[in-house]
Specification:
Structural class: alpha/beta
Largest sheet: 9 strands, mixed
Distance between the termini: 43 Å
Bound molecules: zinc ion
Shape: elongated
CATH class of the largest domain: Alpha Beta
Number of strands: 15
Radius of gyration: 24 Å
CATH architecture of the largest domain: 3-Layer(aba) Sandwich
Number of helices: 14
Number of domains: 2
Strand content: 15-25%
CATH superfamily of the largest domain: Zn peptidases
Oligomer: single chain
CATH topology of the largest domain: Aminopeptidase
Length: 453
Amino acid sequence: MSKVLLTNVAAVVKKGARPLLKRGAIRQMKTPAVVPFDANLFSAWFESLSAIGATPEGGVNRPFGSKEDRQVRAWLLQVANQERLTTSVDAIGNIWGTRAGTEPLPAIVIGSHHDSVPYGGRFDGPLGVLIALSVIAAITKAGISTRHPLTFVSFTAEEPNPFGLSTLGSRTVAGRLTPDVLWQTQSSDGTVLQDAVRAVGGDLNQVLQARRSDQDIAAFLELHIEQGLRLIRSSTPIGVVTGICGIYRERVVITGQANHAGTTLLPDRHDALLAGAQVALAVESAVAALGKDDVIGTVGTFRIEPGAINVIPGMCELVLELRTGHREDLDALRADLDARFAAIAQSRGITLVRSVLLDQAAQPLDAFLQETLQTSARNLDIPYRDLFSMAGHDATHMASLTRAAMLFVPSVGGKSHCPEEFTPLEDICRAAQVLIHSVLALDENLDRQDGIS
Ligand SMILES: [Zn+2]
């Protein structure tokens, strides 16, 4: 079996792409699952999907609204239909595919997103979508009927995009974006969001109908690459995510004084660039002073004016971002930065105006779902560890409307949002087995646990 698969994989892998399988990987794998996971089927799907928008470097380029985004959508609908799922595209373009349950219960939903950052990797997003399809296929193939409907979802535009609305699909489902905001949104080149949404099968006129509640969805499960090094460094194949960080963004505009670069002596300068550099360093120092794993900060954009070789910069604009696991840490960081920025302003004789761009709270994930994932891993004798996510995900928003949980699989080299993204098939299969067991356990227990966790 694995020989056939290896031949197929070798035939479709593009130049530069790393093969998904290591020779002999499947033969060495422990398969304790009662319901077998079809690694061959998954691999064939993964290679087909990775061919859409494939780049010479071995990654994919499938930003929201691109031709490749639309091609992936058509491919997903075709596969879901082949798997005899009832498919639909909602008003924001999210793709859903459902296998009916035997009782009138809300669905257990599994999924992620299929768009990529520009020139990104093959795993961020699509892995979770294909695992969702594969898990449902495995349960169906095993002839198991479930009380809850089982649904796969692939969300629209999870990654940052020219419309400035990442996690567009899941935020809309969670009712966190109002129709007013959606209608007013346009990209930097003037394309209105409605046109982009229409092109992927949605329609903002119906957008309220895309909202879901816990009456529709009993639980949401997302598998994703870790995008860090904690699993690899601890040689652990699976991470059970405990929560997703809060994200705070602030624009800082520093006004100094533009002046002649030759004739203005150091004591007479009010250099906005140097003040901005101190602000960036202050963010790093404040984060380091807290010294916590779930606190990080970055200055990711930096612009100066007038930007002339012989002029002292008179203006500097930057955006800082703080990611924290707890509101108290964000409050402490902000207080620390207040003091540091005031000292910079005073010492350089500049003014500093700050405006908040985003203040998205940290999102704990559901305790009962985490426990189910942990128990499944233990029963399957698959090592796991708990992890807090420092990256945002669709699960952040799904957790606001229903129980939600996430599994991480290792990112080799900690690489993500680049063509080098890679997760070994052995790890993917282990995570899939945990998901299959968890879905079946949830199907048995979920509606009997209400009010417990
Ligand atoms: Zn992602």
